[in-house]
């Protein structure tokens, strides 16, 4: 097995909260690595942006997911002490997580028919960094 | 180190929301792989079903966990746009995550005394797929 | 690539809910392993304590995150059946997750400028166990 040098992807976000499909970027990195059998880690270097695997068919799923999260974890609470006003973005990020791991088999990621990899912005718009690490043979 | 070919497990769920202990299936896959030292990834191929590590002793923990999630993220909200009526299952899945990673040491998973691996259905009953990937030596 | 034997870290918590920065412990384990290129898994052996990557600058972020979680998932609900009175700690743990994976590059973890690794106690004070597994070359 080989541990391929990680690649850095820049993600430009356009709104405060937003899901961006990055599946093709991960697929391209796998293709370029030549790894046929192993796994890939996608890691977000931020504490107010996450990465998750979610439905890639109906964009309404993204709307509903972000909307419900916003209802549960609104931007302002009287008891928040952090003065940047983005405490809720930190909790949302912790909830979804800042990395995903996917399996590579026969040169392709194993993803369900409706699964895509999404970069999730919770405190944009910003320029963000995502690291792709591939391990395999 | 070797990257063992992934195995697919079918999980039959019986209710809309349900936690199913799949620890023994993962243990069996590790045993069959012959790997003594490494790690295992369990990956769920769906966007309305998750996998998590939780208490394996008192089933009331599962009841309380699913019930509280249901209270926080009920099935219907007036602002949901996704017309399949399962937006809440997507958010619950994103919250718990669709994969776990566990360490293999001396041929066995390192799990705490009260830890088990659970497949978590949020939009059943259905026939579901779970992928087990073992890497090690 | 080598699969390094896991090391166990003991974490002493002092309050019911608490975030403890364990980044330096993980860094030390990587240094001692001699691995320059690969990844590390940090795994918590409990079902009422988590591990997450969060902001390491302003401690108010930790306060706000734990406080909001407490508001969303209070300790007592009339419908809880588990008689240990810590059902909420189980759900909080499932939400944050019991493991993280980080990439090792040139002998160091790839972490964003504001990222630290935090052990998160939800049912303390207790003596807890955290496993560090390093894989690489």
Give an overview of the whole structure.
The structure is a homotrimer of 137-residue chains. By secondary structure, chain A is of the alpha+beta class. The first copy, chain A, has a single domain, classed as YjbQ-like (Jelly Rolls, Sandwich). The first copy, chain A, contains 3 helices and 9 strands. In chain A, strands 1, 2, 4, 6, 7 and 9 form a 6-stranded antiparallel beta sheet that branches. The longest helix of chain A is centred in the middle third of the chain and has 13 residues, at 60-72. Chains in contact: A-B, A-C, B-C. The B-C interface holds B 1, 37-39, 52-55, 58, 60-61, 63-65, 67-69, 71-72, 95-97, 100-103, 105, 110-115, 135-137 and C 1-3, 5-6, 41, 43-47, 72-73, 77, 79-84, 87-88, 90-91, 93-95, 97-99, 101, 129, 131, 133, 135.
Radius of gyration of chain A: 16 Å
Q: Which CATH top level class of chain A fits?
A: Mainly Beta
Q: Which structural class fits the helix and strand makeup of chain A?
A: alpha+beta
Q: In angstroms, what separates the terminal alpha carbons of chain A?
A: 5 Å
Determine the CATH superfamily of chain A.
Answer: YjbQ-like
Report low-confidence residues of chain A grouped into runs of 5 or more: none
If classified by CATH, what would the architecture of chain A be?
Sandwich
Q: Tell me the β content of chain A.
A: 35-45%
- Percent helix of chain A, as a range, is 10-25%
What is the overall pLDDT average of chain A? 98
With helices defined by DSSP (H or I, 4 residues minimum), what is the helix count of chain A? 3
Name the quaternary structure: homotrimer
CATH topology of chain A: Jelly Rolls
Q: Tell me the number of strands of chain A.
A: 9
């Amino acid at each position: 097995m080989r541990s391929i040098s990680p690649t850095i992807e820049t993600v430009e976000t356009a709104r405060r909260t937003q899901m961006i499909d990055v599946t093709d970027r991960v697929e391209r990195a796998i293709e370029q690595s030549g790894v046929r059998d192993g796994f890939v880690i996608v890691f977000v270097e931020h504490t107010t942006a996450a990465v998750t695997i979610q439905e890639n068919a109906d964009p309404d799923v993204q709307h509903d997911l972000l909307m419900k999260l916003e209802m549960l974890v609104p931007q302002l609470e009287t008891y928040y002490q952090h003065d940047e006003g983005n405490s809720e973005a930190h909790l949302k990020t912790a909830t979804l997580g800042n990395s995903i791991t996917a399996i590579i088999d026969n040169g392709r990621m194993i993803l369900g028919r409706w699964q895509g990899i999404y970069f999730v912005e919770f405190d944009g718009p910003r320029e963000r960094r995502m690291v792709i690490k591939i391990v395999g043979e």
